[in-house]
Amino acid sequence: IEVATSRKGIYLSQRKYVIDLLEETCMLGSKPIDTPMDPNVKLIVEDAEPLNDPKKYQRLVGKLNYLTVTPDIAFPVSVVSQSHNAVIRISRYPKGNPRRGLVYRDYGHRRVEGFSDADWAGSLVDRRSTTGYCVFVGGNLVSWNSKKQSVVARSSAESEAMAHTTCELMWVKQLLTEMGFVDSSPMQLWCDNQVAIHIASNPVFHERTKHMEVHFHFVRENIQQGLISTCHVKTREQLADIFTKSLRNGRVQYLCNKLGRIDIYA
Q: Which InterPro entries match (predicted)?
C-alpha cells in the first residue's frame, strides 16, 4: 500500500501492486474495462470449463484478495472461484485507473455508521443470498465485507445482514474506545428494507418472523441499550449495494465516489 499525505488528508493506493499484477498475468497490454463484473452474466458452475492449470488460477485469486483498497471488487472476488473468465475481467478492471485509492479526510465529526444490504436468493446455483456491509468512522470508509450466506434464506436475508453489520459496528466502537476516541451518540445502522427495520424495532414477534428472531433479537438489544439506531436509506443511496451484486458502470462510479475511492492525480 502506498501512502500520500497532505493538509487535505491521507491517501492510500496500490498502483505498483496493480501494475505488478498485470505484468505477472501478461495483461499490461489488455484493454481496460469499466466494471469488475458483467451485470448481464450469471456465473453457473455447470457452464464452466475445467482449467488446465488450477494453481495459476488460485494464485491470481489470492493476489486479487490483496487489493485491499479496492472495495468495489469485494463482491466479484467472492464469487470468481466459479469462472476463470470472470477472474480475468476483474484483473483488467484496475488497469483503467491503477492510481485510484481511498482518501481519508477530516469531516469535523467522529460519527460511526454502517450500511447493510442483502441480495436475497441472488445465486442461480443454490439460491443462497449474499450479504454485505460497509462501516464509516468520521465519514471515512474503514471496513467492508461481502459474504455468501451458508444456508438458503426462506425470506429476506436482511435480518442476518443487519446482525453482521451490528457486530462490526460494535467491534469498531470498542476499538475506538480503547484508543481514547469516545463518542456517546448511538451508531447509525442504515438499511433500505423498511420491513427489516420495523421488525428490529418491534418488541413483538409473530409466527412468520420466528425464523429470523435470533438475528433481530441481537440487533434490538443494541438498539434498546442506545448503542445503535436504525435508519432507512433510499435504495439509490445504499452504499453497501456494491458488495452484494454486480452493477453497471454509472452505478459503480457513483458508489465508488461515495466510498471515498478517487484518483488524487486526476
A: DNA/RNA_pol_sf
